[in-house]
Amino acid sequence: MKKVIVDRHLHRCVLRVDMVREAHVDILPITNLVDQLLQDEEIKVGQQSQGAFEAPEINAFGQNFRDYTNAETERQKGVEEFYRLQHINQTYDYVKQMREKFSKLDKMEMSIWECCELLNEVVDESDPDLDEPQIQHLLQSAEAIRKDYPDQDWLHLTALIHDLGKVLLLPKFEGLPQWAVVGDTFPLGCAFDSFNIHHKYFEENPDSKNPAYLTKNGVYEQGCGLENVVMSWGHDDYMYLVAKENGTTLPTAALFIVRYHSFYRKYSNIDIRYIRLELIHTHLMNDEDRENLKWLHVFNKYDLYSKSKVHVDVEEVKPYYMSLINKYFPEKLRW
Ligand SMILES: O[C@H]1[C@H](O)[C@@H](O)[C@H](O)[C@@H](O)[C@H]1O
Ligand SMILES: [Fe+2]
Ligand SMILES: [Fe+2]
């Protein structure tokens, strides 16, 4: 394995691989992936500006990022209860109904910026790392990625809009329960895998009793492409529908990021996303997905580790983001 340590974030990736090895997970595919990751990372670093964003070691509460194992705090207990409900209630049929219902986009008309402001009324109960207003999360991730990729304006806008689908929690959007809007996502119609956070709760999901859904591929064909896979319903897929149906001119990679940014895997207390093991689902992906995944990897770091107590001055950055919104979206969108 090529060990080129290019930044602290990647350094951690390498450590994580050793931990996985100790845990006796099948490491062969992982080392291949890490090789690929290192190559990607070298290219990426070449594109970055000086003083690139450094992923902090701990979150704003002094804990490791995305620590779901320590149920000591009220917050973490709440997060576990969230995943219990999510894993029991998200079923193949439920997702199909929700997609059909919300793809009508008949709830309201508003601009992207109006939606950013609406999001301030939203609290995400699945997130152990964040209790700042959501508009801060959008701007913090967008500003961090803008600093490192100054020429990719589409990426800045993608970060700004990626969580807008959380408006589904608001009464104006039927006030869906948290388990139907936030949290990590996973495929339905095939076996639930143990890499999902708190996966034990899937036992109580009615789909666990349907033999058609219990094999690795389930109702899908190998390599069918993620767009043919029914993913758990939430803010990701909804915002993807909104952007696409309103005719955004953002590139395909942007739509892919919005749609799959919560599709993560975990192994025990090891956050697999460090080693890009989202690729564990390669059996359902096609070549286009694998291509888009490269940008999703870039994005993940900024989405996860930019969450901080230091606020971005909204009024100061607003003109820049308004110019991007005008470039890539119509003035009013159907939601
Ligand atoms: O708790 C978080 C949050 O809901 C994010 O918006 C989502 O993208 C993450 O995957 C999830 O873990
Ligand atoms: Fe999200
Ligand atoms: Fe996010």
TrEMBL record:
Pathway: Polyol metabolism; myo-inositol degradation into D-glucuronate; D-glucuronate from myo-inositol: step 1/1
Reactions listed under catalytic activity: myo-inositol + O2 = D-glucuronate + H2O + H(+)
Binding site for substrate: R66, D124, E125, S126, K166, G183, D184, H261, S262
Swiss-Prot/TrEMBL cofactor(s): Fe cation
Listed GO MF terms: inositol oxygenase activity; iron ion binding
Family: Belongs to the myo-inositol oxygenase family.
Protein name, entry field: Inositol oxygenase
Species annotation: Salvia splendens
